[in-house]
Amino acid sequence: MKVLGPIQEITYDGKIIVTGAFAPRPGSVVLDNRKKTLGKVRRIFGPVNSPYVSVEPTGDSDLLRMIGKQVYIEGVDDDGKGKRRHRGN
């Protein structure tokens, strides 16, 4: 589990906007501090050094109480360096 960042707001259509410390892969599972699934990453937008992450919620949790709390990403890879092995110069 890796810290994604705090929940900034809830949009009018029910999506969660998180101020991210990094850009996760679309489709990654987002968790709260009790390892309860909040949703999946759908879109990454904004500045490169602190992107905004749009999360589509999957449960019936009270999202308005979650504003300002940290969320986490499940199963973050090291940064894809394993793909480059055995590549010629």
Descriptive notes:
The protein is mostly beta strands and about 90 residues long. The protein has one domain: Thrombin, subunit H (Beta Barrel). Helix content is about 0%, strand content about 40%. It has a six-stranded antiparallel β-barrel with strand order 1-2-5-4-3-6. The protein is globular, with a radius of gyration of 14 Å. The mean pLDDT is about 85.
Regarding CATH, which class? Mainly Beta
Q: Give the class from helix and strand content and strand pairing.
A: mainly beta
Q: What gap, in angstroms, lies between the N and C termini?
A: 34 Å
Which fold name corresponds to the CATH topology?
Answer: Thrombin, subunit H
What can be said about the biggest beta sheet?
6 strands, antiparallel, barrel
Number of strands: 6
What's the CATH architecture name?
Beta Barrel
* SSE string: EEEEEE
Q: How many separate domains?
A: 1
Using only C-alpha atoms, the radius of gyration works out to: 14 Å
| pLDDT averaged over residues | 86
Count of alpha and pi helical runs: 0
Portion of residues in beta strands equals 35-45%
> For the largest beta sheet, what order do the strands appear in spatially?
1-2-5-4-3-6
The backbone outline, from C-alpha atoms, is globular
Task: Identify low-pLDDT runs.
Answer: none
